[in-house]
Amino acid sequence: LSVREHCEVADHLRNVRFEFRTRDEAAAVGHTLVQLLPRVAYLEFMLLELMINAVEHGNLEIGSRLKAELIRDNALDAEIEARLARAPYRYRSAALVMQRTADRINFSISDEGPGFDWRAIAMPDPGARSGRGLALAQAMCPDGLRFNETGNVVTLSVPWEVECTSASASSSSRTTRSSPSRSRARSPRTR
Amino acid sequence: MIQATQQGDTVTIHIAGRFDFRCVKEFNAVLAPDMRSWIVDLGEVDYVDSAALGLLLLLREHAGVDTVRLRHLRGQPRDVLLMAKFDRLFTLED
Predict the structure, then answer these.
(1) B51 to chain A: nearest residue by CA?
(2) Beta-strand pair B37-48/B68-71
(3) Is A190 on the interface with B (CB under 8 A)?
C-alpha cells in the first residue's frame, strides 16, 4: 500500500478484535495489523511479544523456567503442540482488541490463563535465559504497559499520528492528517 | 532462512528475513560440535523477537564465551539487541 492508501485505510480502523490460540496465529494477526497502521516504533515487536506471551505463559501456563529448559532441550514446540491439544488448555483462546480514540490507539491483549505477578517485570541480565520479551516490550512502550490486577490482560497505548506527506500524496496536493490537528516534529520511526 | 558455511574451524551462520520463534529447529540444526569460532551474519534480518535472542544465548552457551561474533546488525535487530545489552555478551562487527 502507498502511504496515501495506508492513511485512508487506517482512518477507518476504529474497533477491531482478533482471537488467536497459537503463536503462528498471533504472529500472523500482529504482523498483518501492523501493516495497516501508522508507523510506531517497535509496535510489531511489542504486540507480538505480548500476544505470544498470552499464548505460551498465559493460556498454556508454560512458566519462564520451564520454557528455558524446553528451549535448551529443543522441545518447546512439541510441548506447545501437546498442550494445545490437551484440556484445559485446548479450550482457551487469547484476544487482541484494538480501539482507536481521537489521538491514540489502545491495544488490549487478554488470555484465559491464571495471570502472573506483572509487578516483578524487570530487564534481566543480558545472559539470563528468560524474562526478556515482556521487559523489552515495557522498555519500548513510551507510556508503559498496563496490566489488570490478575495479570491476564495487558494494555498498550500509543499515540495515533498519521501524516500523508509521501510523494503520491503531495503530487495530488492532498495532505491528510486524520488525528486532531496537532503539529509536532516526529522522530524517525520503525516498525 | 538459515544457512551455515564452514571455513576451517569457523562456522558462519547466515540468517535472512525474520529471525523469530519459528527458527528454533532450523537454528539448532546448524549447531555443529567442536567449532572454535562462530559468526552470525544478521545483515539480511529485518526482524528479531525475544526467542531469537534466546537462540543467540544458546549458541553462546554451546560455543563458549567470546567465540561468537554478530555481524552486520542494522535496523530493528540492532536496536533490540542493544536494548537487551547483548553488546556485553557478543562481539559486534560491521
Answers:
(1) A133
(2) parallel
(3) yes
User: What confidence tier does A1 reach under pLDDT thresholds 50, 70, 90?
Assistant: low
Considering chain A, what is the average pLDDT of its residues? Answer: 84
Contact A59, A93 (CB under 8 A): yes
Please indicate if any CB of chain B lies within 8 Å of the CB of A188.
Answer: no
Q: How far is CA A67 from CA A60, A77, B14, B56, B87, in A?
A: 11, 10, 26, 16, 24
Q: Does B25 touch chain A (CB under 8 A)?
A: yes
What are the backbone dihedrals phi and psi of residue B60, each rounded to the nearest 5 degrees, phi first?
A: -65, -40
Q: Running along chain B, 94 residues long, what does each successive block of 10 average in pLDDT?
A: 91 96 91 83 97 93 87 97 96 93
pLDDT of A30 > 70? The answer is: yes
- Rounded to 5°, the CA angle B44-B46-B49 comes to 120
What is the C-alpha radius of gyration for chain B, rounded to an integer number of angstroms? 12
- Nearest Cα of chain B lies from the Cα of A175 at a distance, in angstroms, of 28
B50 part of contact set with chain A, CB < 8 Å: yes
Q: Which amino acid appears at position B72 of this protein?
A: H
CB nearest to B28's CB, from A42, A44, A74: A74
